[in-house]
From TrEMBL:
Top-level taxonomy: Bacteria, Pseudomonadati, Pseudomonadota, Gammaproteobacteria, Chromatiales
Designated name of the protein: Peptidase S1 and S6, chymotrypsin/Hap
Family annotation (Pfam families): Trypsin_2 (PF13365)
Gene3D superfamilies, alphabetized: Trypsin-like serine proteases
InterPro entries noted in UniProt: Peptidase_S1_PA, Peptidase_S1_PA_chymotrypsin
Length: 284
């Protein structure tokens, strides 16, 4: 009567034992390969799914994006792009950076602050008025004329994690190529103290510099390429479109031309919590 092969022999010395040991190793390798495949699926599928949702999110975000500009009838060109903004709250409030706005307007020559809505050839110029501002956080709110725009929702900026993938939409090089908003992806590299951009020395008074040294506001440092025209662009979550920050500056080595010709790939954004506070404190 043939002897049955027993694969649980502790020290196999016969050929049958070697076969059992080989079968055991094969099963172990198969299980390890399956586990590795499942791990890769768990790691890669969410990012792929998130990336696939971005086009749908951009379609919802773009109608809220505006160009912040000045308009002067006798000037050529009549419109001068200053930065980007986006509709919030009731759709007639536009958020942007304070440093985007001019200190004074040439009223004698009918210069006025405006926003340009729409895209391509289907655009509309609307009057705008500054109604609230935070110099500390480089934020401003504009009240615009006309019908409300589709407003963007503000997300929880405190919940943003280092390494999170986000996106922002705006006009990186102004309206040189027309009113076509561009979207870029960015990763959150860190939370870091903000150094506010200043157009001239008068904006850097002693009190302001001392405040920045004592308790500088924190901003998101981004591993993403933004340009000067992106100032005021909403930084939003790829899946939901919730705004968690506002692009307010780029790291440059050199002047404005260097920022366009040789971008550093490092940008900064003010957390949306600061914008939420400004909106809540605003009264018409």
């Amino acid at each position: 009567m043939p002897t049955a092969v027993r694969c649980h022999h502790p020290v196999p010395r016969e050929p049958a034992g070697r076969r059992c040991r080989a079968q055991g190793w094969a099963r172990w390798l198969l299980l390890a390969a399956v586990a590795l495949a499942l791990l890769l699926v768990l790691l890669l599928v969410p990012r792929q799914a998130q990336s696939e949702r971005l086009p749908d999110t951009v379609e919802r975000v773009e109608p809220a994006i505006v160009s912040v500009a000045t308009h002067q009838p006798a000037r050529s060109p009549r419109l001068r792009h200053l930065g980007t903004g986006f509709a919030v709250a009731d759709g007639r409030l536009v958020a942007t950076n304070l440093h985007v706005l001019p200190d004074v307007l040439d009223r004698e020559n009918q210069e006025r602050l405006v926003v340009v809505t729409g895209s391509g050839r289907n655009t509309e110029v609307r009057s705008a008025e500054r109604v609230a501002a935070s110099q500390t956080h480089d934020l401003a709110l504009l009240r615009i004329s006309g019908t409300p725009l589709p407003a963007l929702s503000l997300g929880d900026s405190d919940a943003v994690r280092t390494g999170e993938r986000l996106a922002f939409t705006g006009f990186p090089i102004g309206m040189i190529l027309g009113m076509y908003p561009a979207t870029h992806r960015a990763s959150v590299s860190a939370r870091t103290p903000m150094a506010l951009p200043a157009g001239h020395s008068r904006q850097l008074d002693e009190r302001r510099v001392a405040q920045l040294r004592r308790n500088p506001p924190m901003v998101f440092q981004l591993d993403g390429t933004a340009y000067p025209g992106n100032s005021g662009s909403p930084l939003f979550r790829i899946d939901s479109g919730e705004v968690v920050g506002i692009i307010n500056q780029v790291f440059v080595q050199g002047g404005r031309e260097a920022a366009v010709g040789s971008p550093s790939g490092i940008s900064y954004a003010v957390p949306s919590g600061q914008l939420r506070a400004l909106i809540e404190g605003h009264r018409d």
